[in-house]
Amino acid sequence: MRRSIRALAVGIPAHDEVDSIEACLRSVVDAARAVGLPTAVVVAADACRDGTAERAHSVLASAPDVRSSVLHTAHRAVGAARRDSLDAALRLLDVPAPQIWLATTDADTVVHQSWLQAHLSWARSGVDGIAGLVQVDWTGHPLDLPARYAESIASGGTTLGHGHVHGANLGLLAARWVEVGGCGDAAVAEDEELWRRLRSVGADVLGVDDLLVTTSGRLTGRAPRGFAHYLTGLATEEVA
Prior knowledge:
Layout: E1 7-14, H1 21-35, E2 39-46, H2 52-61, E3 67-73, H3 78-91, E4 100-104, E5 109-111, H4 115-125, E6 129-136, H5 145-153, E7 170-173, H6 174-180, H7 190-200, E8 205-215, H8 227-235
Parallel strand pairs: 1-2, 1-4, 2-3, 6-8
Antiparallel strand pairs: 4-7, 5-8, 6-7
Helix pairs in contact: 1-2, 1-4
């Protein structure tokens, strides 16, 4: 059964991301314009000590066709910041939750122009949540690191039905988000926790292979034991 989706909401947590937030937001705005539906974009500038919030304000102010806001939070936790950003984006839309699709990414990530179009296609197909794949910007890394990364994720698959869950590339029906109370406020792995919450209520969730983003390959991250920590382990051969 085809589902009616009338609006999209995008939430982005950010902690000291002044160097990357502009590229992230410009890519999200481009993706929103490609869809042609009312779209709200909210950044949660969480415990920032740099100009992340100001830079985000500037970029979003240049896109008046996209409803937007920048929150100032002090959680020091990506889970709470992601939850706040998505909840705030929902409030910017005068559309019932069963007709809103939520998408989330990270502030050090660039989405493809077709990102939200892919989200919308899956949303209308009737699934409740999708987890996309993450490509890494390997600039400046050892030449063998991409192969090591590919080997490390192979067990989870990279085709339709894969088992990877990344906060940098997730989407779900707003009604399901409300039903499970959003994601938890953990400082790490809030994306996997959200997936478990969705499964616990019988939501139809799926790992998809046509939803791609490119994330930073940095080895010093913002979340403890997050993606950057994982890449550091690969780079030092601490992660099999």
